Amino acid sequence: DVKVTQSSRYLVKRTGEKVFLECVQDMDHENMFWYRQDPGLGLRLIYFSYDVKMKEKGDIPEGYSVSREKKERFSLILESASTNQTSMYLCASSTPGQGLIEQYFGPGTRLTVT
Amino acid sequence: AQTVTQSQPEMSVQEAETVTLSCTYDTSESDYYLFWYKQPPSRQMILVIRQEAYKQQNATENRFSVNFQKAAKSFSLKISDSQLGDAAMYFCAYRSARGNEKLTFGTGTRLTIIP
């Protein structure tokens, strides 16, 4: 069974703090993704990584950065958290390639920035 | 850029009945992949069903089936014999057959099952 875990289910941070969201997968997947989920907006891709130390911007990368030092771990970093970054953050992983490839999701981290 | 539209923010259905969730998408590509994901309350998102654009036959997974109309760019999800465990947010997603492997999601439909 593929397992994607995220370091926290709930997180409360103050404006201006540096925030780290961690994601770990145990299936040796090359691809890892960070999404943001907001009501009425669905899921929007922030960043994804297709290999260690490789990353690509998604649709809404502003205000975020990522780090992938090991294959199984993908971190999302909010350099200076702002209230408009209050959201649910979902991590996902998948194997690479074309076709009907499934993405496996973590349980999500609900971040509140006050 | 591709867009995915789910025009029904909320739906409800009586237990054991059938419900159809709509999804339309906009693309200029001829080859792509479509997915339905389910997000139960406080639980992880999981894949429900998937379809390749070049396959005419509609995908089916047990009580879940799709109605894929390529010309109309429509990909609706039909749930037969609805069960209480089907209550969830349902997201339609598009993936291009070219370029990177990102998914473009719709805004979701919250499905309530009425006992």
The helix tally of chain B amounts to 0
Q: What coarse outline of chain A follows from CA principal-axis ratios? A: globular
Quaternary arrangement of the chains shown?
Answer: heterodimer
Q: SS-based structural class of chain A? A: mainly beta
Strand content of chain B: over 45%
Structural class from helices and strands of chain B? mainly beta
- Give the N-terminus to C-terminus distance of chain B in angstroms: 41 Å
Which pair of chains has the greatest number of interface residues, and how are they split between the two chains?
A-B, 29 and 25 residues
Helicity range of the residues of chain B?
under 10%
Beta fraction of chain A: over 45%
Major pleated sheet of chain A: 7 strands, mixed
The amount of helix of chain A comes to: under 10%
Spatial separation of the terminal alpha carbons of chain A: 37 Å
Rg of chain A, Cα atoms, Å: 13 Å
Average residue pLDDT of chain B: 95
The whole-number mean of residue pLDDT values of chain A reads 94
The number of distinct helices of chain A, counting runs of at least 4 residues, comes to 0
Radius of gyration of chain B: 14 Å
Report the count of strand segments of chain A.
11
Q: Detail the poorly predicted runs of chain A.
A: none
Helix/strand order of chain B: EEEEEEEEEEEE
